[in-house]
């Protein structure tokens, strides 16, 4: 099995997460200058840690697990954390690949299943390359 490419979404999808992380760090840094009692100090750090976990770490991990692998056997589409959002499509199972500026890349299977791929740079070019690979198989 030949591995042709691994496509990843745009990094700009993490912009809000990084802005929230910077805001959390700024608040903690601002509050660390003042003399706080012990319970306020722990409350500040626990709140900042939980906020950073849910607003930055989990989205960054989900982003790192989102990709499309193009292989000689077909496509492997992984969306987010866990293998429950992973689908594998053989080239023989794919009937059409089309592009829409609003919805992104649409991959239609033999069983009328539809997979959308969104958030990638150059989606029209990606759809064209996948169509040429589909015709070549």
Keywords:
137 residues; four-stranded antiparallel beta sheet; 27% strand; three-stranded antiparallel beta sheet; PH-domain like; alpha+beta
Give the structure's gist in a few sentences.
The protein contains three helices and seven strands. The strands form two sheets. The protein has a four-stranded antiparallel sheet with strand order 1-2-3-4, with no helix packed on it.
Overview of the structural elements:
It is built from three helices and seven strands. It has two domains: 3-7 and 67-136, Roll (PH-domain like); 11-63. The chain has helices spanning 15-31, 38-64, 123-136; strands at residues 3-7, 67-71, 74-78, 86-90, 94-100, 104-109, 114-117. It is α+β, with helices and mostly antiparallel strands. 42% of the residues lie in helices and 27% in strands. The two termini are 14 Å apart. The strands form two sheets. A four-stranded antiparallel beta sheet has the order 1-2-3-4, with no helix packed on it. The chain is elongated, with a radius of gyration of 21 Å.
